[in-house]
Each structure stands twice: as C-alpha cells, then as structure tokens.
Design brief:
The chain is α+β, with helices and mostly antiparallel strands. It contains eleven helices and eight strands. Strands 1-7-6-5-2-3-4-8 form an eight-stranded mixed beta sheet, sandwiched between helices. Strand 5 and strand 6 form a beta hairpin. The longest helix is centred in the C-terminal third of the chain and has 15 residues. The radius of gyration is 22 Å and the shape is elongated.
Length: about 220
C-alpha cells in the first residue's frame, strides 16, 4: 500500500484499485488521479464507444439494440446492406415495426449494374457478387409493406467510389462506421461505434458525409 501511494508511477490494476478504495472508503481519483484521467476520455475520442477490428466481430446484439432503441431515424448506408437481412432474424418485420412507430428508415444502396459495382466485384472476386448482395437487400426490402417512412435510393454515379469505400449506419445519435480496406469485403473491414456528444465532432462528420451522398442519390427501383 505504501509503495503504491508513495509513488505516483506505481499504479495497481483496476480491480485492485477498486478493492483498496472500497476498503478505505475514498474515491479512486483521490488515490490515483493519473489513472482516472487516463481512463476518462476528454477529447474528440469521447465519441468513440467501441472499436472492432472486423465488422463481423461486432455482436449481432449491438445492431439489434441500436435498431430497437432508435426513435426518430435509422439510416443504412452500406453499399449492399444485405447482411442485415441474413444476420438479424425476420429483419423485414423489425423494419415494419419501426416504421409503424414513426421512425424514418432509409437505405442507400450502390447501383447493382454500375461501373463501380462491376469494378468492386473484380476486386473482391467472391462467389457472392456485390450486385447479387445488393439484390438480396432489395428483395428483402420488397417484403416490407409500402410506407411513407421507408425510403431507398441508389448512390449517384459520381459518388459511388466514395460510398463503396465507407459505410455509415446511423441510429439517432449512434452510428456504426466501417471503412473498407483494399480488397477486403465489408465483414472483414474494421468498424467504429460512435455516439454524438459534440457539435461538429466525429459523429457529425460521418453523418454529414452520409447525408451528402443521400441528397445526391436517386430513388432505387
């Protein structure tokens, strides 16, 4: 104990710190202020809730919880968005419920027959092509009864290269952002979970990017 308290550079593990503080009846900040300051985010990174080395490493429950908690708007800005319908049980019914609750739901898709889509297919070289993945999403969206709150658009041709390289999924004040690396497919690319806390912070910058693509897009078939 004397060694820890007498030298600010000697900081015990978090569990040990908690035990000592509970025994002494004092706050952790009083004994180890440096450790607390390091643990608490105070800069732009405070909007980062968590990071995943692969999109597939994000628990499916996280997606489900974000969709369930959204009260105003949901924006799916992946180039294909097909995985949502495969990984979330009866996802078309979930979307229907959210629409009935008054939530605005938007899907921004890549155009299946565009040059950018064909180029991406050649890069990925996977059996389940990019265009087929887009059509899987469209087919499942067709199962959702028509509703004024559901909107689907294709990315404008001039924006397609920007869209295929970065996916933004927004749920009110939360967002999942996935930059696509080189030849990797979406589920193998890293992803960040952001929560809006500041004006013009990381969340806002990615949200504005998504809105710009959306504004220039055109209604999908």
């Amino acid at each position: 104990m004397e060694r820890w308290i007498g030298n600010a550079d000697h900081v015990p593990h978090a569990r040990t710190r908690a035990t000592v503080c509970a025994y002494l009846g004092v706050s952790e900040e009083m004994l180890w202020p440096k450790a607390v300051k390091t643990a608490v985010k105070t800069g732009p990174d405070k909007e980062v809730v968590s990071v995943y080395p692969y999109r597939s490493a994000c628990p499916k429950a996280v997606w489900a919880e974000l969709v369930s908690a959204a009260e105003k708007e949901i924006f799916f800005g992946g180039y294909t968005n097909y995985f949502l319908f495969l990984e979330q049980p009866h996802f078309h019914l979930t979307l229907q419920r959210k629409l009935e609750q008054g939530v605005r739901v938007r899907f921004l898709l890549g155009e299946p027959d565009s040059e950018v889509t064909r180029a991406r297919e050649a890069i990925e070289d996977t059996p389940l092509s990019v265009s087929m993945r887009i059509r899987i999403a469209q087919d499942n969206l067709g199962k959702v009864p028509p509703h004024e709150g559901l909107e689907v658009r294709y990315t404008a041709p001039e924006d397609a290269t920007n869209h295929v390289g970065l996916s933004v999924f927004r749920f009110d004040q939360d967002a999942l952002v996935c930059p696509h690396l080189a030849r990797l497919v979406g589920h193998d690319s890293p992803m960040m979970h952001l929560r809006r806390r500041d004006e013009n912070g990381m969340f806002d910058r990615f949200a504005e990017h998504a809105e710009e693509l959306w504004d220039r897009g055109r209604p999908a078939d």
